[in-house]
């Protein structure tokens, strides 16, 4: 590897000349109209941001989470995120106006319920691909940094 930024390059990208995009869930190439535009978000050049998950996969995912919400009730008062230990009062100001502090965390392969966590921690786990080894290495990296400073 010549450049460490290669680690962050994704083979799944938009080919604007063909108006085709690859869904990050089903890994299928589809026309951009099969993806949701994020109307409220624009790139710096003014282009609309198109979500990375196709409408079909997004619908399936929404169905999974809705089913889990019916089975696993929303946490009771006094609940804190089990990862960051923040209360709803601490989370809400960080959510850009979203007043629901906790979201369903579930296994994307099996659909199994894992728990209720805050959106930041849910995103972090997603970026770590729900891989405990990645999280352990990240914790070690942070510990090592703290020891050096």
Q: Could you give the topology of this structure?
A:
Elements lengths: L19 E3 L6 E3 L3 E8 L5 E7 H17 L16 H4 L10 E5 L6 E6 H9 L4 H17 L1
Antiparallel strand pairs: 1-2, 3-4, 5-6
Describe the structure.
It is a single chain. This protein is of the alpha+beta class and 149 residues long. It has a two-stranded antiparallel ribbon.
The overall pLDDT average reads: 83
Q: Which descriptor suits the 3D outline?
A: globular
Distance between the termini: 29 Å
For the biggest sheet, the summary is:
2 strands, antiparallel
The count of strands amounts to: 6
Rg over CA atoms, rounded to whole Å, is 18 Å
Uncertain spans, ≥5 residues at pLDDT below 50?
A: none
Structural class: alpha+beta
In DSSP terms (H or I, runs of 4 or more residues), the helix count works out at 4
Strand order of the largest sheet: 1-2
Share of helical residues: 25-40%
Task: Give the ordered list of helices and strands.
Answer: EEEEHHEEHH
Percent strand equals: 15-25%
């Amino acid at each position: 590897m010549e450049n460490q930024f290669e680690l962050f390059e994704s083979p799944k990208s938009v080919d604007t000349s063909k108006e085709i995009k690859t869904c990050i869930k089903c890994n299928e190439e589809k026309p951009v109209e099969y993806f949701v535009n994020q109307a409220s978000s624009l790139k710096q050049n003014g282009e609309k941001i198109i979500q990375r998950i196709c409408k079909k996969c997004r619908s399936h995912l929404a169905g999974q989470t809705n089913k889990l919400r019916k089975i696993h009730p929303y946490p009771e008062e006094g609940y804190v995120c089990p990862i960051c230990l923040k209360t709803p009062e601490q989370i809400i100001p960080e959510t850009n106006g979203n007043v629901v502090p906790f979201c369903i965390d579930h296994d994307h392969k099996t659909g199994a319920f894992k728990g209720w966590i805050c959106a930041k921690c849910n995103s972090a786990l997603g970026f770590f691909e729900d891989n405990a080894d990645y999280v352990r290495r990240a914790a070690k990296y942070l510990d090592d940094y703290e020891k050096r400073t």
